[in-house]
Structures are given as structure tokens and as C-alpha cells.
Amino acid sequence: MPKFKPHRAGVRIDMTPLVDVAFLLLTFFMLTTQFKPDEYVEVTLPASHADFKLPESNVMTICIAEKATPIGNDSTHIWMGLDSQILRQRIFSNYASMYGPTYYIKPTLYPVKKSELGNYVLQARMANPKMITVIKGDRNADYGYAEDVMDVLQKTQVTRFSLVTELAAPGQPAQ
Amino acid sequence: MAGGGDVAAPREHKGKGKKRRKGRRLGTRIDMTPLVDVAFLLLTFFMFTTSMSRPQTMEINLPPDANVKVEVAESNLLTLRVNDKGEIFYSFGIESPKKIDQKDIRAFLRDKASTNPKLIVLLKVDRMGKYNMLVDMIDELNQDGVTRFSIAPLLDADKAMIAKVS
């Protein structure tokens, strides 16, 4: 079938500025992105409608896992982490000698016995008074462990803390 | 930005250009489309990962000392007890608890919060219950305009009271 071909005018768009801008934004986002640290504990967050964002720095995270983790001769559901690597290594510096060579590799979260949690919380607060405490509990974890953690926090004068949740769809029951 | 083009433009033949014989330039036009494709792909990836990775938090304040007694009028105190199965029981003051369905709790709390602005809710969750129950209850309280609530352990006496009703 014969086709009538009109003469196409050569439209060449200079893409250079576009590429410039794209790469500028790309580098910006690449540099500002903070990748999720390796999760040592699997925590499925509960959902809520709270819209207060988790702060980026000066955060002390207390995780409550669904499953117990062995520590020494004991086991625990409570994990503790700090966003500052230096502080984390200083506070948990005795872990390698106490609980064996696994802790020579510095994890981001350390399992903590209930009886020692208060001590570590105090140390962290002393090192950085601006520390914000955050409880990150698994939705299927027993509430008893959360109660223990809140009890410890109250005893160590941490009266203001946050619970980390996922955002539930507005209007929906958080289930 | 407009000045950028001038800088990037090839120099007129000066210096080096004079010595070198002007060879026939091959038409080197690079098709930038795949480059742009990849750049935008990465760009969108990073844009999405940055904005989505912040989790929400729920703020809670505890009284500084557990031993400080706060006097609360009996009529203003609503105790919500949640047992290990997730069933909710409410009671005003010291009256015996009544069971309330999960789906009725919102209307109930909204009604109570609007009629009594001085309402204080005491939330008691069973230790054997799930952490999710606590978060759900706090979320419900926050949404229904109950600004003053506190969390207390569910004691054996509370369990006995609930067991009698259910």
C-alpha cells in the first residue's frame, strides 16, 4: 500500500540540560538516602493513625521481638539500639568479652536482659541527654515484655517515649 | 544556567587547533536517551525510598514517679481492661466491668469524651495479650479525642473481675 510520506522536519532536542538536572537530583537523593540498617530482629510493626514522624538522629530504639533470643545463659525478647555508632560501641563494648565472639562484629541492635536494660538506658541518657526513646514492638509480641520495658523506662525517669507504628489507611480501623 | 552553554561550547580553533590538521570530524552524536532513562529510573527509585522509609510514631508520656497518687473523681475515671483474648471491658469508677464489642468502642468513647471533657482513661492490658492490642487501644483513644489516659498493669484482682463477667 503506497503511503504518502511528508517531509519530516528534523526535530532534535538537546537533552543535555535535562540530563544535567536529572543527574543533579539523582546525586542529591543518592547522598541524602539513608538505607535501612541490617535488621537483626524481625519486627512487624502494628498499624496506627499517628502521624508523628520518627526523628532522624539521637534515637534510642528498644525493640520487642516476638521470639526470644539466647543471651549468655538467659534469653530475652528485648533488643536495644542507638543511632550513633560511636556511642553504641562504647556502651556495648563489654558484649564481646561477656557473650562471645559474635559481638566482635558490631551489630546495630544488641539483645539486652530485662534486668540490665535500665543500666544501658541510663548510660545512653547520660552520654546524650537529648536522646529520644522509641519502642519498636512486634505486633504479635506478648504485651508483658512491653510492660516490662515501660516499667524500666519509668524507673529510669524516661517519661516521654514513642511507639513506632506503621501508618494505617485513614478511616480504616487499625487492624 | 544560560551562561552554561557558552562555557561548554567547543573553542574556536586557537593554539592547538592551528598546528593540527583539521581532520574530518566524524559525526559523534551520542544518543542520550538510554542514559536519561537510567538516570530517571534511579532518580525515581531514590525519591520513593527516601520519602517512604520514615515510620510513624505515637508519643506517650508517663508520670515521672509511679508512687505519686493522683486524686481523680470516680465519675471521671473510665477503666478499660483488655484480656489475653483481646476482649474489652469498661467500667466507671469502681463499678464492675461490662463487656464491650470491638466495633462499638469508637462510638462509646466518642460519646463519653464529648460529654465529659475531664474524662481520664486507665488502660489495662493483660500481660499475656499482644502488643498490638495496646497500640490499637491507644490509637483508638487518640482518634476519639481522649487526651488524658494512662497505662497500668492488669492485676490479678482485675482478672478476677473480668472472669466474673465474661
Give an overview in words.
The complex is a heterodimer of chains A (175) and B (166). Chain A has 175 residues and is α/β, with parallel strands linked by helices. Chain A has helices at 16-32, 85-91, 95-99, 114-127, 143-155; strands at 47-48, 52-53, 59-71, 74-82, 109-111, 132-137, 160-167. Chain A has a domain at 47-167. Chain A is 32% helix and 25% strand. Chain A has a 6-stranded mixed beta sheet with strand order 1-7-6-3-4-5. The longest helix of chain A has 17 residues, at 16-32. The mean pLDDT of chain A is 82. Chain B has 166 residues and is of the alpha/beta class. Chain B has a domain at 75-165: 2-Layer Sandwich (Nucleotidyltransferase, domain 5). Helix content of chain B is 38%, strand content 19%. Chain B has helices at 4-8, 16-19, 33-52, 105-115, 131-143, 156-165, and strands spanning 56-61, 77-82, 88-92, 98-100, 120-125, 149-153. Residues 1-9 of chain B have low confidence and may be disordered. Chains A and B meet through α1, β1, β2, α5 and β7 of A and α3, β1 and α5 of B. β7 of chain A pairs antiparallel with β1 (56-61) of chain B, so a sheet runs across the interface.
SSE pattern of chain B, N- to C-terminal: HHHEEEEHEHEH
CATH A-level architecture of the domain at 75-165 in chain B? 2-Layer Sandwich
Record field, number of beta strands of chain A: 7
Strand order of the largest sheet of chain A: 1-7-6-3-4-5
Beta-strand percentage range of chain B: 15-25%
Helix content of chain B: 25-40%
Structural class by helix and strand composition of chain A: alpha/beta
* Principal-axis shape of chain B: rod-shaped
Low-confidence stretches of chain A: none
Kindly report how far apart the N and C termini of chain A lie.
Answer: 63 Å
Helix content range of the residues of chain A, please? 25-40%
Mean pLDDT score of chain A, rounded?
82
Rg of Cα set of chain A:
24 Å
